[in-house]
Specification:
alpha/beta; 4-stranded parallel β-sheet
Length: about 300
């Protein structure tokens, strides 16, 4: 039977890696199972992440965090987890593509997946800044520019309303049969944004702009925000019986623990404010609570306080 670790972290994004750093500094070296596709890896340059006034690339930030976690003996193991369950003894079993793992606690930091329009070159367009995903993160950079929001429903109208702080040169591009009810049509009209109906195939990502060709007309924009929603990667938690909210994100308490004792969550899969700094804070909170619970359990069991369990 596999050894029982103090903790296993599922997800190698900002939340998971922060937890690994904290646990390592608690003398509890972490095991991180990393599927290798963090949402943060799409960030070309983040200008609102504290401590990096010149901005930082998402992949570079993750690389720095991986190196920092390894300073404290974290193991970052490529892989995926297919199933997670907690036994009657309170020990979690994780079925991975590399075999079975066991732990007294688990931190899920698997994030969300952006729903993408069927437009070629989305990653490359994101790196060039013609496609943008997070107006909270980078709408400052589109101040006064021509901007399209690509959507199918009222969610895109809400994004238009948010972007009005930055520019009044806006258009809502409703793709693939998207529709608005009368209330949202009125709300859109109040923003002054243009409404364009087209198919995703009518949208092209050029070197420095987004072009929409439909009904004999051509529209060009400096950037476009897809607003098609997100899919929280919460299946592991759901199948384990953890409580989800109405948006399929994980419910957690003030210490980032889910409704299952010993199962924690951090980052985008928890709440709607998808920010690097939020994920990092949540990873730190979860790791600290895990350490405190393990420390108290060891003392209650008669262990010497100086003898801390390790990964």
């Amino acid at each position: 039977m596999a050894e029982v670790r103090d903790n296993i972290i599922v997800g190698g994004g900002p939340g998971g890696l922060t937890a690994a750093i904290y646990l390592g500094r608690f003398h509890r070296p972490a095991l991180v199972i990393d599927a290798g596709d963090p949402r943060a890896g799409w960030i070309p340059t983040s200008h609102n992440h504290p401590g990096f006034p010149q901005g930082i690339n998402g992949g570079e930030l993750l690389g720095l965090m991986q190196g920092q976690a390894r300073l404290y003996d974290a193991e970052i193991r490529p892989g995926t987890v297919q199933r997670l369950h907690c036994g009657p003894d309170g020990v979690f079993t994780l079925d991975t593509n590399g075999g079975e793992l066991r732990a007294r606690s688990v931190i899920l930091a698997t994030g969300v997946r952006d729903v993408q329009p069927d437009i070629p070159g989305m990653f490359a367009g994101t790196q060039r800044g013609v496609i943008r995903w997070c107006p909270i993160c980078d709408a400052f950079e589109i101040t006064g520019k021509r901007v399209a929001v690509i959507g199918r429903n009222a969610h895109a109208v809400r994004e238009i309303e948010f972007l009005r702080t930055y520019t009044d040169r806006l258009a809502l591009v409703l793709v693939d049969g998207g529709r608005l009810d009368d209330e949202n049509r009125r709300a859109l009209a109040e923003t002054g944004a243009e409404l364009i109906h087209c198919d995703a195939s009518d949208v092209t990502l050029e070197a420095q702009e987004v072009v929409v060709n439909v009904d004999g007309r051509s529209y060009s924009f400096d950037s476009a925000y897809p607003a098609l929603g997100m899919e929280p990667r919460s299946k592991l938690a759901h199948d384990a019986g953890a409580r989800l909210d109405d948006d399929d994100r994980l419910w957690v308490n003030g210490h980032m623990m889910t409704s299952i004792d010993g199962l924690y969550a951090a980052g985008d899969m928890v709440r709607g404010l998808n920010q690097l700094s939020i994920a990092q804070a949540e990873g730190a909170i979860a790791a600290t609570d895990i350490h405190n619970k393990l420390r108290k359990a060891q003392l209650a069991g008669g262990a010497d306080e100086a003898l801390l369990a390790v990964g």
